[in-house]
Write a structure and sequence with these properties.
Blueprint: E1 9-10, H1 12-23, E2 31-35, H2 46-51, E3 59-61, H3 64-67, H4 83-92, E4 100-104, H5 110-121, E5 127-130, H6 133-139, E6 165-166, H7 168-177, E7 181-184, H8 188-191, E8 211-212, H9 228-237, E9 246-249, H10 256-265, E10 272-274, H11 277-284
Parallel strand pairs: 1-5, 2-3, 2-4, 4-5, 6-10, 7-8, 7-9, 9-10
Helix pairs in contact: 5-10
């Protein structure tokens, strides 16, 4: 099967077909499957705890925590790596500029979506997310393995796309200019600072002017993305005009990638990500720059 259009999502049945075609020696585009399974705790070794236990055949492990380590005094949990670091890591995974990357995880697609965004940030648009992730793969009864593919180091040339990322300073300026619509993927309790629901000591509220589109509303019960019509309705009901510039945010710039992907599914090529998100905003913004209404 020849891939001519690199969709935001690929289905489990399509990926299984590609894996079997490759094993049978059929001609096919260069495909690399990345297992991005992890937890929010960087001390948890996702390679050992998840990937080594079982994974999709022919997948290799993508270590987001290792690629984007946070260190004090940074307020950003997953800082964008410099271009040389990203290039070196991509080449260690055997990726080239012609590789079609398919990524998945075991965490409601959160880490896979961040991986999808990172590759697009560095100019690689031949990247898709496995719809429903590892959970859907297992639900469909498809094979898993503990075998790891042999990887040969490659040549990969990244090109940063600055239109896909926003800084704290950009977001402060946007409060005045309102150039970008800001959509926040956190739940309503955090967005509106509902102290009756939020854990003690948790900072709630949102960037003034933001619209709330909670991450879970993007998905069906099986973890796959909702239909085009349903996703379009989600944005419309939140008052988001996808014909206008959009920047996505959340707590740590993870679930925000789901908003960017949902818009991409609907044909919007560029949705920026505030990579500091509310974790940075809550610690750097002035008191009047945190809204609860």
């Amino acid at each position: 099967m020849t891939v001519t259009h690199f969709r935001t999502l690929v289905h489990t049945s399509w990926l299984r077909e590609q894996i079997f075609a490759k094993a049978a020696g059929a001609k096919h585009p260069v495909l690399r499957i990345l297992d991005a399974s992890a937890t929010p705790d960087p001390k948890v070794d996702g390679y050992k705890e998840f990937y080594k236990q079982s994974h999709v055949p022919d997948a290799c492990y993508f270590n987001l925590h290792g690629l984007c380590p946070s260190s004090p005094p940074s307020f950003i949990k997953y800082p964008v790596p410099d271009v040389n670091r990203f290039q070196d890591y991509a080449e260690s995974l055997g990726l080239t500029n012609d590789t079609h990357i398919v990524t998945y995880d075991r965490s409601n697609t959160i880490f896979a979506l961040k991986t999808w965004w990172l590759f697009r940030l560095f100019g690689h648009t031949k990247v898709s997310v496995l719809d429903g992730g590892f959970r859907k793969w297992l639900m469909d009864g498809f094979e898993v393995t503990v075998e790891e593919p042999v990887i040969e180091r490659s040549s990969f040339q990244p090109t940063l796309n600055p239109s896909l990322v926003r800084s704290f300073e950009d977001m402060v300026e946007n409060i005045k200019t309102k150039k970008d619509q800001v959509i926040d993927a956190r739940g309503a309790a955090a967005f509106f600072d509902d102290s009756n629901v939020m854990p003690p000591g948790t900072i709630g509220g949102h960037i003034p002017g933001s619209k709330n589109v909670p991450y879970p509303v993007l998905f069906n019960e099986d973890g796959t993305f909702k239909s085009h019509e349903e996703l379009r309705s989600v944005f419309e009901q939140a008052g988001v005009d996808l014909a206008q510039p959009v920047v996505a945010t959340c707590l740590t710039a993870m679930t925000a990638c789901g908003l960017a992907a949902a818009a991409h599914i609907l044909g919007k090529e560029t949705v920026a990500l505030y990579n500091g998100s509310f974790q940075e905003w809550s610690q750097r913004a002035e008191p009047d720059q945190i809204d609860v209404d």
